[in-house]
Amino acid sequence: MSDTFRALVVDRTDDGQTVEIRDLEEDFLMEGDVDIAISHSTVNYKDGLAITGKAPIIRTFPLIPGIDFSGTVTASRSGDFSPGDAVILTGWGVGESHHGGYAERARVKAGWLVPMPEGMTPEQAMAIGTAGFTAMLCVMALEEQGVLPRAGEVLVTGATGGVGSVAVALLAGRGYRVVASTGKADEADYLKELGAAEIIDREEFAGKPRPLAKARWAGAVDVAGSVTLANVLSQVKYGGAVAACGLAQGMDLPASVAPFILRGVKLVGVDSVMCPKERRLQAWKLLAEELDGEKLAAMIRRITLDNVPVAAEDIVQGKVRGRLVVDIA
Questions:
Q1: Do 217 and 241 form a contact (C-beta atoms < 8 A)?
Q2: How far apart are CA 134 and CA 239, in angstroms?
Q3: For the residues 235-253, what does the mean pLDDT come to?
Q4: Residues 217, 243: contact at Cβ < 8 Å?
Q5: How are beta strands 34-42 and 323-327 bridged, if at all?
Q6: 201 pLDDT higher than 70
Q7: What is the pTM of this model?
Q8: Which residue, among 290, 325, 314, has the nearest Cα to 195 in the 3D structure?
Q9: Residue 323 CA, distance from chain mean position
Q10: Whether residue 155 sits in one domain with residue 228
Q11: Same structural domain for residues 214 and 162?
């Protein structure tokens, strides 16, 4: 193995941020008990915000961003992993306060890693990535709240994005009638290929939220927050639930308590960053078992490390469909 490794590094200046590819020495790595040769990463919405500096995602500089990666253990000072093990990392502040996935090497805590599920490749793991993992957590949350296929239609907002695309495929695979909300009418065929039964314009959720609107949804997966989430909540049927996992539109929630106290609607927050390990293992197992390989392949666009800065701009501007897989090796 070379004494140096290649990485994308974000640093802070008086004028903002710099983003560049560097050759780094091993002593640049942070503390951890497992060393990994990274093969793949992804570009998530949070990565886009971090690299463009449009939100204060990065909390220490200089930093290698990238909130997830897959690869192979090269050295371990933990009894949980051995050299040669294939592993996945999502969350735990990686790419925010600890060096992340846009590098040929990583050094992290063993407790942050999960073993690669049987039959899954490193590329597939990052085609799923944080977005797909979050989508599965949302599906699990809805089912735990009693939202089953027989209950009625399930809405997915931001359906062409990473979380939305995987959520549509997973829900359709479980037998739900999925309605996909998007601002990209030309992506209707893509969403129907993933399993959406109906496509609706996101503008239907753009007006001033009413305390209660006509009830339609048995449940929903929302990545937008703000006005969109408030409108969705007002349309959820009695006893339904919404799994909220994003804030692409905003962190505010201009909603009424009416859906909660008059229809018994549940709003379930879904966090993938600090998700406990047992639930992580459960979610990755289900992803390996349930996510259709052909549908997953249809979501992927492959890029290299050098392409990441441009991809970060694109994803923040809403120009990305599905999943961007970064081939590090």
A1: no
A2: 23
A3: 96
A4: no
A5: antiparallel
A6: yes
A7: 0.94
A8: 290
A9: 9
A10: yes
A11: yes
